[in-house]
Design brief:
binds magnesium ion; binds adenosine-5'-triphosphate; 4-stranded antiparallel sheet; 7 helices; 6-stranded mixed sheet; 25% strand
C-alpha cells in the first residue's frame, strides 16, 4: 500500500498506470484486500480485487449475506481501511490519505444511503438534508443559505416538500429513506453508495424509494453503486457485479463460475 499522504486532497496524484483499461473510470480498485483476524485465524473477506468502475454508471453489487458487499462499499467510501491494496477515485488515492483529508474527501465527494437511514434525530428533515452542504468549505453562512435552498428543492423532488420541519421519528421508514436520498445528493457528490437502501422497507415503498434514487442519480449524472439482495434492481443496472469467494466478478464471469 502507498504511504499515507499528509498533504491536501488535491496534492495526491495517481501513479503511472496503463490508461487503456480505465478510460472513463471513476473508481479504480487495485489489489484491494480486507481480512479480519478471529481467534488467531485470518479470515479474508475481499481478496486482491482489481476493478475499474466507470463514471455515470449504475452498478449493482450482489452476493450472499456475509460475502463482503458492505465491506467493499465501506472501503470505496473511505469509511473503512483495507488490509492491503488501494482505492482510487479519479486522481485521488483514497487509501493514501490521512484521516483528516479522508474525512474531507468523503464529506465533499461521497453520498451514502444506508439500510437504516441514519438520519440525525435532533435535526429536522430540512436540517438533515442541508447538513452535507453546510459542512462544505469555509463560507458557512453562505453554505447554509445555499444548502437550505438545495435541500428544499430535493425534498420537493422526493415528495416531502411539506415535511421540511418534521423530525425523523415522526416520519415513516420510506419517508426517512427519501430524506436520506435527498441528503446523499444535496452536495452533488461524485459518487453515491447505497447499502441495501430498500432492505428495511415494504415492497411498494421499496420500489418508490428505488425509483427516486435511480431517477435523481441519473438526472444528476451521478455514479451509483448499490449493494442489494433485490433481484428486481438488476434490469435497471448498467453493470451487475457479484462478490464470490472474495472476488468481484461481473455477471458473465459469475455465470461461468456457477457452471463449473
Ligand atoms: N469488524 C469485523 N470483524 C470481523 N469480521 C467482520 C467485521 N466486519 C465484517 N466482518 C465479516 O466480514 C464478512 C463480510 O461482511 P459484510 O457485512 O461485508 O457482508 P455483506 O455481504 O454486506 O452481508 P449482508 O448481505 O448480510 O449485509 C462477514 O463474514 C462478516 O462477519
Ligand atoms: Mg451488508
Amino acid at each position: 500500500m502507498a504511504q499515507k499522504n499528509s498533504g491536501s486532497v488535491d496534492a495526491v496524484t495517481a501513479p503511472a498506470v496503463d490508461d487503456s483499461n480505465h478510460v472513463g473510470a471513476l473508481i479504480r480498485l487495485r489489489g484491494l484486500t480486507k481480512s479480519y483476524e478471529e481467534a488467531g485465524t485470518l479470515h479474508t473477506v475481499l481478496h486482491a480485487i482489481d476493478a475499474d468502475l466507470r463514471q455515470g454508471e449504475f452498478s449493482v453489487l450482489l452476493g450472499k449475506s456475509g460475502s463482503g458487499k458492505s465491506t467493499l462499499l465501506n472501503l470505496i467510501g473511505g469509511i473503512d481501511v483495507p488490509s492491503a491494496g488501494e482505492v482510487w477515485i479519479k486522481e485521488t488515492c483514497l487509501t493514501c490519505l490521512n484521516e483528516r483529508d479522508l474525512t474531507l474527501f468523503r464529506r465533499d465527494h461521497i453520498g451514502f444511503v444506508f439500510q437504516f437511514f441514519n438520519l440525525i434525530p435532533t435535526l429536522t428533515a430540512l436540517e438533515n438534508v442541508s447538513l452535507p452542504y453546510e459542512l462544505r468549505g469555509t463560507d458557512r453562512r453562505n453554505n447554509r443559505r445555499e444548502g437550505e435552498r438545495a435541500a428544499r428543492n430535493l425534498l420537493e423532488r422526493v415528495g416531502l416538500g411539506n415535511r421540511t420541519d418534521t423530525y425523523p421519528d415522526k416520519l415513516s421508514g420510506g419517508e426517512q429513506q427519501r430524506v436520506a436520498i435527498a441528503r446523499a445528493l444535496v452536495h452533488q457528490p461524485l459518487l453515491i453508495l447505497a447499502d441495501e437502501p430498500t432492505g428495511n422497507l415494504d415492497e411498494d415503498t421499496g420500489k418508490t424509494v428505488l425509483n427516486l434514487l435511480l431517477e435523481l442519480s441519473r438526472d444528476a449524472g451521478k455514479t451509483l453503486i448499490m449493494a442489494t439482495h433485490s433481484p428486481e434492481v438488476v434490469p435497471y443496472a448498467d453493470v451487475v457485479y457479484h462478490i464470490s469467494e472474495g472476488k468481484l466478478v461481473t455477471e458473465a464471469e459469475y455465470q461461468k463460475i456457477k457452471q463449473n
